[in-house]
Amino acid sequence: MSKNQTDTASPEQMSFEQALKELETIVRKLESGSGDLESSINDYVRGTQLKEYCQNKLADARLRVES
Q1: How confident is the model at residue 35, as a pLDDT?
Q2: How many angstroms separate the CA atoms of 59 and 40, rounded?
Q3: Which residue in 11, 44, 57, 61 is deepest, having the highest Cβ count within 10 Å?
Q4: 15/52 Cα distance (integer angstroms)
């Protein structure tokens, strides 16, 4: 999946690793303050979606291991 496809893909269409990598990139960008307000808001929203997806995947994995 190319970078542009990853940036616009629904988290459910991504692997856990792809989602986590994009989330890490967003966090670094937001921490650096390098974007304008609108892109920072969009990044925050996208990061929130990715964080929720990753948390759900980890919770599912934990349930499978504990079962």
Answers
A1: 85
A2: 28
A3: 11
A4: 14
